[in-house]
Hints:
138 residues; alpha+beta; seven-stranded antiparallel sheet; two-stranded antiparallel ribbon; 2 helices; 9 strands
Amino acid sequence: MRKDKLTSKEKKWMMYLIKKMEKPEKKIALRQLRKARIKREYDPFYIFVVFFLPQNVERLPFSNGVPAEMWAKWVGPAPMVFLLHVEDGLLKELEVYNADLSEVEIEYPITKWNTEVRVEKVVEENGRRYGVPPEMNG
């Protein structure tokens, strides 16, 4: 694993996930992304990009879990899955793998893929903002 900034491919993946967030959350996520240091682990079957952020950055209203996911279908037999994990309001990890657990092929440009992105909707209740999973977004 290397400590580094995001590659151009990783940035494109993150932009596809973040651009579907509502405006306030999108701004926070982009600020966090700019401040993040990362470690990456590429394996033939999965990719992990782990984010390290200072504790004093503004936090997303998502506590823990996967507020954004993307399924991308291209020429392979199974969709590629992108999961953006958040922990205590901070970007934690981008996880990438094929739905059938076959080898991950990242050379095909994402702009050619058929993508479906689902993002938690942020609701406000009693002055508190929090995310609601996409399945419940009626």
